[in-house]
Amino acid sequence: MDTDLARERILDAAEDLFYARGIQAVGMDVIRDSSGVTLRRLYQLFPSKGDLVEAYLARRDARWLQSLATHVDTAAETPQERLLAVFDWLEDWFTQADFHGCAFVNSFGELGGTSPQVAAAARHHKDAFHAYLRELATAAGAAADTGTQIALLAEGAMTTAAISGTPAPARQAKQAAQLLLTPDTRHVAFPS
After folding, report:
1. Which long-range contacts (CB under 8 A, 24 or more apart) does 5-12 make?
2. What pLDDT does residue 4 have?
């Protein structure tokens, strides 16, 4: 088996298992068995479990953000529709049988306090996601801060959907995002 194929099989197994069960619950022997790659080959490609976790998170980051951007680019025409399409993509993701919440929040919750690499990967992913939403918000004529607020709505929807087991938080967050994008409500001051 060539190196690229072995690497992909290992990463596919790691992604499925780490996301479904948690990083700490999955040993390298389980990755070996699931991937069909020998333990020796596995350690040649990923000398430690930490190396495998970093590669898993980097690949998931790229795939997740690309899938989201592809949906936004094809599902909507106006800048405001593009921003709101994020929530449609989230709702679709939330309905998938293998949805277990945000892999980066999950990984950070498990290892963020003890693994600077996992913490950095989670921060990188969230920074990229929030920057993307700020870009979409400014293209829709809103302030960059509105994009940050919409990102927080999306983050809350991910967590709530994972806990509740329903996609409804995506629709609810989309409605709140629409309010943030409505000029009459953008500058409403809320009592503290």
Report:
1. 6/35, 6/37, 6/41, 6/45, 7/45, 9/35, 9/36, 9/37, 10/35, 10/37, 10/42, 10/45, 10/46, 10/52, 11/52, 11/55, 11/56, 11/59
2. 92
